[in-house]
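Lab meeting, action items carried over

1. Structure of the two-component assembly. Owner: GW. Status: complete.
Input record:
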Amino acid sequence: MGYTGPLRRLTRRLVGGRTVPVLTVCLAIVLVWYLAAIGLNWQTETQKLTRAGDYTVAEAIAATWSAQRPVLPAPHQIVAEVWKTVFDVRPTSPRSLLFHAWVTLSSTLLGFVIGSVLGILIAVGILHSRTLDKSLMPWIITSQTIPILAIAPMIIVVLNSIGVSGLLPKAFISTYLSFFPVTVGMVKGLRSPDRMLTDLMHTYSATPFQTLMKLRFPASLPFLFTSMKVAVAASLVGAIVGELPTGAVAGLGARLLAGSYYGQTVQIWSALVMASVMAGVLVWLVGLAEQAALKRQGARA
Amino acid sequence: MSDARLAPALASRATPEARLAAFALLTVLLATGAFLLLPVGGWPLLFVGLLFWASAWGLTSSLAALSPASKALDRLLSIAIPALFGVTILVLWELIVRGLNVPPVLLPPPTAIGSEIADSTHLLWADFVQTFLKAVIAGYVLGCGAGFLTAILIDRSPFLKRGLLPIGNLVSALPIIGVAPIMVMWFGFDWPSKAAVVVVMVFFPMLVNTVAGLNAASAMERDLMRTYAASHWQSLLKLRLPAAMPFVFNALKINATLALIGAIVAEFFGTPIVGMGFRISAEIGRMNTPMVWAEIAVAALVGSLSYGLIALLERRATFWHPSIRKG
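Predicted assembly:
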């Protein structure tokens, strides 16, 4: 093999891989965004400028990118707002985006953990009881086709009226949303060892519990992590929607609702960006845990 | 098992059919007894209720233990067992709520929900028309269509495919429902804003799945098309699109649920005074929980019916696929 310079190798890897295409698409999205911001904010901003007097096109474009209450805020406005509310404000004050993100994150995580544990327990129950398998499993699958989120406001209000408020009702919705994917994935995973392996456990005269712990549970890990990625995203959505109906004062959902009441588009977008970053990080963390667990099992990366 | 202790006469020597009949009779008797005891309440009701539960469990498990020889009977059983389980839950729900005098605000009994559905059919129908027939259908068709067409367009460019797929996968994990307030600001309070939320929600699952599906045809089959000197469009229409259908239908099924959720939640951000999401948040404000449950029952029914319809279409369209051909 001839010598290829490190620079050339790097370029080839970048173009042949994903980095350059993804960056190009991102750049295109930002460009389209700026153009769309001009188009959508043009009318209101030029009206304002006409009232003030003469204006040039450059001035008008600059105005559409720095409007107070834009129809579509320009990306740099959102970045500035996120920066301001994350780094320039104490994290404990209700003006800080970190404060709201933490409120949402805490109920997301609590609900996700309870939901995953519950999902695993139900899956083990379904595995060991033919009656549960035949009677409960169809309902669990049907329930995935039901818009469960519609139930969220009711759970919050009902739990509030019996004196349970704060973290738990929201976490309950996240639990509800996250246990379905985990149950379905785990049942599939626990059943994944083939006949040969279960027969081997049988010849060792292993108890059902030993078979579960030493064969079925390790075999189900890939399924568990895949469904946990879905579940963690779902529980974040659950926590956000759970903050909508009761006029909650804290959390990303409350920021969205307050922003839509007062026409603060930049605030809505910054809450959305925060929620997206959180979803990305949560899924990425589950992915890291998956890699670590599978590596310990001896899977090749 | 508790059922063996409860009914010693039904010990294992009885035939399965006799056991089944005995359990069925016992369950119906106990359910009737429990409803008759409702005015009395207290310990007798609790006792009979528990007995009913045990006997219904026994009935379900003896049904589940059957393995009939004929295929039709087997299919009937696979519907009857979950149905029986559902009815058991409903009866227990009714007994618990009425026996313990749970305030209807917390949890209304199923009969109250049923009579609410019967009483306010016109309201439920109006909400169904507004949310489902207008917002969901329009958004679903537009979003799925746009995702499908985009996938076919970017299919010709590996560069775009490599760039858009990771972004599409990322977006699928994001809480897209948060764009609802923005869409309400842009498109107003009526159904177009809800349809727009649905479009954004269903677009990316469709895009990602269709692109994956277009790659599903194997190299051997593609080479065959090349030896036939098939053009790009010919091989797309005759080989790759049919091969992509299982993936497309997978996205259609995921999106059916997403679309309904998107339209309902978007109505929490502002709506005219009709629609399923509006009704839910308004009736909760009035603490009228039976109506909320009625609305949720309608949503559940609509959700599972549309899912079932798409699954049915899938069976017709992908009749050649091993997972369907086998049955």
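2. GW to write a short summary for the group page. Key points so far: The mean pLDDT of chain A is 82. Chain A touches chain B through 58 residues (CB under 8 Å).
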